[in-house]
Automatic annotation (TrEMBL):
Species assigned in the record: marine sediment metagenome
Every Metalloprotease TldD/E C-terminal domain range: 91-322
Protein family according to the UniProt entry: Belongs to the peptidase U62 family.
Taxonomic classification: unclassified sequences, metagenomes, ecological metagenomes
Pfam families: PmbA_TldD_3rd
GO CC terms in record: cytosol
Name this polypeptide is given: Metalloprotease TldD/E C-terminal domain-containing protein
BP-aspect Gene Ontology terms: proteolysis
InterPro entries: Metalloprtase-TldD/E_C, Peptidase_U62_metallo, TldD/PmbA_sf
Molecular function in Gene Ontology: metallopeptidase activity
SUPFAM superfamilies, sorted: Putative modulator of DNA gyrase, PmbA/TldD
Length: 323
């Protein structure tokens, strides 16, 4: 491809044998394997450069990284099409977020506040994240489940020797659960969850997500488009940061939607928002849940493999930074 300036691909394979012995008499051995293929495709025309990320992986060996040619070809086409796309115009839009972007929002903006050690010393945040508080619309259910097979966030026992359990973090828009270590479960007076994990033996375990995701709703993608009418369809996370309850995420690309029909591609998309307002603005959830088989998370100078997922979601009044 003439306009593809650079490509790079990395392969990562990690095989771990975890042993846990405690004075309680617990003896656990858990073997974990993760494979990950990830890279970047950079297109260039004149002074304009665009980059698109590509990845595949899981915890089930080589099966997840074989036969990825079509995946790379699809991402290459997106990188080339972005050279012809126009920058998005800044403003407030009703938007459909694709599963990748919605999953990253769920992990970064909401998920970390579900980790008990994040909020335990923040009285205002602890009050906002109180079990029983209604944070979103009734259509919104969020779960963390580290027991889902073939996810990078898969494990059966945490590094305190606790058997992990799925946690319903939000049900019908109401906060119903939290991720805990032994210590924080005792402090909060809540059920222990088995989410205290270390990168390796060099670090003390801290509370981490496994696979966090928005549960599927009832709407098809076509129904979401019809409900949206006019707005934006935004795809794939591209970096971002959070500052308390506020967040900024980049998106790799998007499309203008008019009368429920997908129009021209747009680029240079940044999403700005507040967690609690955004949760209330999620007005429809798709029936097409996609769990990412790649991903990671940094916290407390530790990096672990964890995953997220979501169906397509329709969100009203998203602030888009652009020209």
């Amino acid at each position: 491809y003439e306009k593809i300036a650079t490509t790079n691909v990395d392969y990562e394979e990690v095989i771990r044998e975890k042993y846990f012995n405690s004075t309680e008499g617990t003896k656990i051995r858990e073997d974990l394997v993760t494979t990950l293929l990830f890279g970047e495709i950079i297109s260039k025309e004149g002074n304009l450069t665009q980059n698109v990320r590509v990845s595949a992986g899981g915890s089930n060996g080589f099966s997840n990284i074989r036969n990825q040619e079509s995946n790379f070809e699809e991402r290459t086409a997106i990188a080339l099409n972005l050279l012809k796309a126009k920058p998005v115009k800044g403003g407030a839009y009703n938007c459909i977020l694709n599963p990748n972007l919605a999953g990253v929002f769920t992990h970064e903006a909401f998920g970390h506040f579900s980790e008990a050690d994040i909020i335990e010393t923040l009285p205002a945040m602890r009050e906002k994240m109180k079990i029983g508080n209604k944070l979103g619309n009734e259509i919104l259910d969020i779960v963390d489940n580290a027991l889902i097979p073939d996810q990078l966030g898969f494990y059966k026992y945490d590094d305190e020797g606790v058997e992990v359990r799925p946690v319903q973090l939000m049900k019908n828009g109401v906060l119903t659960g939290r991720l805990h270590s032994r210590r924080t479960a005792a402090e909060f007076g809540e059920q222990i969850s088995g989410h205290c994990v270390a990168e390796d033996f060099c670090y003390p375990p801290i509370i981490r997500m496994g696979t966090i995701f928005i549960k599927p709703g009832k709407s098809s993608f076509e129904e979401l488009l019809n409900m949206l009418g006019d707005g934006l369809y935004i795809l794939d996370a591209k970096g971002g940061q959070t500052a308390g309850e506020n967040f900024t995420f980049g998106a790799q690309y998007g499309y203008v939607i008019r009368n429920g029909k997908v129009g021209e591609m747009i680029r240079d998309i940044n999403i700005l928002g507040n967690l609690y307002q955004t949760l209330k603005n999620i007005v429809a959830v798709g029936n097409d849940l996609v769990l990412s088989k790649r991903g990671g998370c940094g916290k407390g100078q530790m990096n672990i493999r964890s995953c997220n997922g979501s169906p397509h979601i329709l969100v009203n009044n998203i602030v888009i930074g652009g020209l």
